[in-house]
Predict the 3D structure of the following.
Amino acid sequence: MARTLDTPRPTDPAAGRSAPGRRFRRAAGKQHHAGPLTYVLLALAAVVSLFPLYWNLVAASHTGERVVEAPAPLLPGPRLFDNLTFAWNQVDMGEALVNTTIVASLVAVSTVLFSTLAGFAFAKLPFRGRTMLLSLVVATMTIPPQLSVIPLYRIVTDLGWVDQLQSVVLPSLVAAFGVFFMRQFLVEALPVELVEAARMDGAHSLRVIWHVVFPVARPAMAVLGMLVFVQSWNDFFWPFIALTPDGNPTLQVALAGLGAGNHSVDHAIVLTGALISTVPLLLVFAFLGKHIVGGITAGAVKS
């Protein structure tokens, strides 16, 4: 009977080296949970971010003398509704809210629309002088807005638009930052093959933009619209020049004439007006924040 010798199998040197790789892949599939330190840091960041808003509410509930005293109050006082009523009636805050909503909405919609169209052209449409025109658009971002105030005001005066909302809306219909932002997004997010396939199927330019460009650019359009809306809502420099507090003021122009007395300024009333101007933005983010974040994350996942 023949004996069978059990010869040991040769060990593969690469097998030992692949074990860490397998462990890494197994660890990559696990869901990592945040530790206590992470929650502490997040809570601290939330407190630091929300404290200015909280103190604005506290200051709006005290008298002007109490606000400027040291130490400053840290708990709400009893005069919130009185200050709200006084601030609302001292200047026409209702009209200012409506005007600001109209201006910010029109500026945001027009900037998103025109910036998306221009960004698509610079990103995917070949035409002569594209690089030079894009460089000129980006170069306009380096020009301080104060340099254009005098010629812009003369144009508005000649057109008879002083103290009219169109004097604030029309100069802001498109922004160089928006064009550059949408161009950078569409360069990576929109394959040129997708545009060519739509054209081969017989789609004209407007159909390509509506059915191809806009769906792909929706996350960036949501971000740009949010940024432009907030910037237009808080804009003060040009509206303060083109509008008057007694005519068609926006919120920031109305706040400029709020709380003024004979020899002093009531800081509690001013901060009450600032609170009134902040609440609509908070409501917008409370109701639309989920949709905005959902649109942003929808463009962050690639198959």
Summary: The CA atoms of residues 219 and 295 lie 5 Å apart. The chain has a mean pLDDT of 83. DSSP finds 14 helices and no strands in the chain.
